Amino acid sequence: MTIFSFTVQANSVVFNPPVELASISLAKTSSQASSSRGSRGSRGLCNTVDEGFSLKVLVPGAGFTTVGQPNLYWSISSPVSANLVFTLIPVMAPGSFDYPEPLIDTTVGQATTAGIHSLSLADYGVSLEENREYEWSVSIICDSKNPSLNMNATGKIKRIKATADLEAKLKSAKQEQLVAVYAQNGIWYDALDTLSQLIAQNGNNENLRKIQVSLLKQAGMK
Question: Per CATH, is 10-218 categorized as 2.40.50.100?
Answer without folding.
Answer: no
